[in-house]
Amino acid sequence: MTLHWRDLTSARRTRLPAVRGAVARPRLLSALDARVLLVTAPAGYGKTTALAEAAAARPGPVAWLTLDSDDADPLVLAASLSLAVQALPGGARPGDALGTGASPRRVAGLVADVLDDCGALLVLDEAQSLSGTPGADLLAELLAPGEGRVALLSRTALDLPDLTRLEVSGDAARLSAAELAFTPAEIAALFAAQGLTLSGAEIRAAHAATEGWPIAVRFLTQAAAQGRVTLADLADLEGGDAPLGTLFTYLAQEVLGPLDPALRGLLTRSSVFEELIPALLEDALNEPRSRTLLETLAGSGTFLTRAGEDTYRAHPLLRAHLRGLLPPAEAREIAGRGAAFFERTGRLRRALAAHLLAGNVARAATLLAGRGGAWLAQGRVTLVDRSLARLPRSDWMPTLHALAGDALRLASRYDEARAEYALAEPLERALGEVRLALDTVQPEQAWSPLDAAAALIGEDRQAELRRLRAENLLNAGQLAEAVALEPELRGGARYALRSGDLDAALARALALADGETGGARAAQNHREGLLLASFLHAARGEVQDAGACARRGLSEGERLESPFVQSLALARLGHAQQAAGDFAAARESYDAALRQAQPVTGRLRVEPLMGLAALAGRAGDVDRAQALTAEARGQTGGDSYMAGLLILTSALGLAQGPQAAQAVPGLQEAAALFQACGDAFGQAAAALALFALDAGPADQAAGAVAAYPFLLGLPSLLAPVATRAGRAALLARLGEAHPGARPALTGAARLLGYAVVPDPADTPGFEVRVQVLGRVAVTREDGRVREWGRAKARDLLALLAVHPAGLPREAAQEALFPDADPGVGERNFRVTLHALGQVLEEGARSGVFLERGDWLRLRPGADLHVDLAAAWARLEQAAGTPGRLDALLGLPPALADVDLEDVAREAERYAAALPEALAAEADVALALARPDRAALAAGRALSLDPAHEPAARALMRAQHALGRGAAAGRVYVALTAALADLGLKPLPETQVLWQALSGARS
């Protein structure tokens, strides 16, 4: 009896897996945008769950097939694929063809057609079953260009040439174990679904213990919910017997059970070591086959991963579980032999860990005392901290107490560090206290221990002590004394900042920042370069760069689990937001910075309090501003520069509020402090602010702007006026008060948008935006839309906007009042012109925006912006100009509907130019092999003009390049219909293009 093709496979394998209790992972859904997705990860990484959830959330149709070893036969695979797609529209065709004797490859091609016709997603789970089999040849048919999508889920890497080609073309994407691993936020969400709210430390412990391995996280969640595991107990899996209980018994039953005894034995006995190398196991385990066995385990895709050339590692939870299976005596013996191997080969960090596991306390203490300082200098704070925790305190020597103090200090645990330093030798105690004062920038606290250290230190360490004293002088604001003692400090970023050389300070800070981010370890607790760069950018008015550096610093602080870094980064983010005028966001950042600073050190509170004081001053709350300033000043710890910056910033807030006169005493005090410190920039900012309040001389203010043009040209954190137009008005007043300085003020003028220093009459102190695209409106800088005094004033504004060079008064009057008697028309026009002037120029000199007389013209410039003029500037740029396409995509589709002939004529010109420009951008994008951008541009052009053939041709080519043949066909059909409505048909070149594309598709 002949078997039916359905008998070759099972419908059970074509069912979409049920997903229960899965945490939402929207970040993985975007991967389905790729036409072909390859998901490769070992068992337990949630491939099936993630794709089942994503497929269920996908709006289009989905087919699923779980492969097995039988699918290595192409005929079986063809039957399985036919069964998987039979419920899709047209899905019966592959099975019908198979039943009439079609070849497996032909059936696979028909499956691809089914997917293509309805834009379905086909998920092939357990795809590793096809590796190296004849069935793998059928995948080429499924991966051919089309509207359908295919996802391949595999435990091991698939070697398919088609995948490499598709990745190069951008049609394929990959997800690995790294992307599938749960993030800390997803772990928190999974615990929350079980009714457990984790602290930040508990989330970090869960993530560190599981490394995000989804199945491990799920088991851990269940065990924690049932009270079988406490997360805090898993913080250090290397420290001995981890309290795993029955949490991972599935490892022995389901994962380890099928292993060959030799492999299982090697995996179990080697679990005492974090990293495995053949030479180590040959020595410590007396296993001559180590290399072969390690390669076999790594090739399984579950047990070991490669950590470098000739180096392997197991998941920490798997190691902890296996180590618990070893008799303690055997584990200590193996660890002791490993420690000897590590010492002999110079791997002292590994030797320390092995000695601790072996119980060799004395040798471990000696190693840690000798090498701990060097490891801290490399940023290995956690290594030192955990190693110390594994040593009984009764075996600690004073050197280890000093080392513990250093580790705690670098972790921002200052009170604990001080307690450990108290148990060290007198010299190390004194030096530790000095470093605490330097790290927290509290120079007053360093003088006494500096003197104590000077009485104890030997000649060989005098240079070290001199450097510490010089750094403290720098922190105290005594720059001249600091560089006299240690001239090299002159080349540092902080000296440049505190002396007023902001250009050099920024260059040095950015150089420092290059080596601060990323990596597995932290070399410097404070991330000084990155966060100093943020402050400098804010001071220079480069608010986007300031915010970017602060956010990078915040990410680093979170990665390093450093409350110090996070608090300082939040304060610097608040500075960037305040400079940008986002006062509500700045307040939130400052409040968050205060919360982070609370348990660390009072010195960290200074900058957020300073920012909040400035915000209170802007709001007119003088009492609160002064109280916050006083509170912050009490935490400056003898830092004169910081005191000056605090008082200056707080005073600038008052200066920009309703009670500006209250700022003068603070500005004067800040100027005196900066003069004593030698900070030219601080003096300049104070001098300019005093002039703005009519309390300081013009020559000093002009010198300040000449030296630091960004104080007026950009939204500096320390600018005396918040708005661009307000700073322009102040510049004009300064130029008028000190005419001889006008050439030196040109730099600031250009930053503000003027070729030369403007006159006060031409700087109203506010900006106006005129809109005629979409609708006619006038908006002031405060966001308030101006009301029209007369309806005709709106029409007159539109008329002037479409005549940027202006037009005769008589022509404007005739356009607005064509049928009125001359006298009546003149009176009505005069009233209309006055009404328009009121809308545009209220609070400013007449004529600053609207040129009157026999010739009427809008006077666009730095303070008046007309959207139509900006649009034409973009439209007239060459295709391919950077930023042009994005700007065109954001333009409104048409001018406002105004019943004036000149406006209607301009509207027609604009309506023709915009799709033309977009089509040109699409052609450029195609030439640059960016079909996605071409499709965006051409699609927008056709939405404006459905009969635009150049845009249609570009979109057809783009869709074809993206593998969307059916979409290209839909474009041609829509174009044909749009042209038919006009009594036209596609041009020959369009028809030829479609024939070529459709022929290639077939």
* Overall pLDDT score: 88
| Net shape | flat
Number of H- or I-type helical stretches: 51
What is the makeup of the main sheet? 5 strands, parallel
Strand content: 5-15%
Helix/strand-derived category reads mainly alpha
Oligomerization category of the chains in this entry: single chain
Radius of gyration: 36 Å
Q: What distance lies between the first and last C-alpha atoms, to the nearest angstrom? A: 38 Å
The total strand number stands at 13
The low-confidence runs, each spanning 5 or more residues with pLDDT under 50, are: 519-524
What does this structure look like?
The chain has 1002 residues and is mostly helical. The protein has 51 helices and 13 strands. The radius of gyration is 36 Å and the shape is flat.
Task: Annotate the secondary structure layout.
Elements: H1 26-29, E1 36-40, H2 47-57, E2 62-66, H3 74-85, H4 92-99, H5 104-118, E3 121-125, H6 139-142, E4 149-154, H7 161-169, E5 172-175, H8 177-180, H9 184-193, H10 200-210, H11 214-225, H12 249-256, H13 261-269, H14 278-284, H15 290-299, E6 304-308, E7 311-314, H16 316-325, H17 328-344, H18 348-358, H19 361-377, H20 381-390, H21 398-410, H22 414-421, H23 426-439, H24 447-456, H25 462-475, H26 479-485, H27 493-499, H28 502-514, H29 528-539, H30 543-560, H31 563-579, H32 583-597, H33 606-618, H34 622-633, H35 640-655, H36 664-677, H37 680-692, H38 698-707, H39 710-713, H40 724-737, H41 746-752, E8 768-771, E9 777-780, H42 791-801, E10 807-808, H43 809-816, H44 822-841, E11 850-851, E12 855-858, E13 864-866, H45 867-875, H46 884-889, H47 901-927, H48 931-944, H49 949-961, H50 965-981, H51 988-1001
Parallel strand pairs: 1-4, 1-5, 2-3, 3-4, 8-13
Antiparallel strand pairs: 6-7, 8-9, 10-12, 11-12
